[in-house]
Amino acid sequence: MPLPATPPLRLRPDIGELDTLVGYIENVAGQHSLPPADTRAITLAAEELFANTLRHSHPPATWIEFSLACDGNAAIAVYSDDAAEFDPTAYPEVDTSLPLDQRPIGGLGIHFIRRTMQTFRYRRDRGRNLITFCRSFNGSPSGASAR
To answer: Is 67 domain-assigned?
Structure first.
């Protein structure tokens, strides 16, 4: 059964838009009575993708779009931008067993998404990066699948 659609949010790639993104997620989560821990995980994942677009897209993105659809069992988020192609699902796994001073900088946000979402997928479509992630509400996630 498809999840009810919510209108997507279109943002400028500007740090000032972060509050708008968070407000959108909190609004949709409130409408669907999402558990607070799930709302936080979805928000952090979206913030991470937003920050990556701002920090790393060259040439810079000119727009970002985010949508969130929910039912009683799951939330599916779609994050897209028109930045240069970047597949975060292909980013190498972080070796969290290494001491902090031996770890390379970066990748912990993507690591977080992988560990807190049941799915984390990427595709490039008509000059857009499309990232889909899903959070199920039936217990603790065991890591992303179907990457």
So the answer is: yes
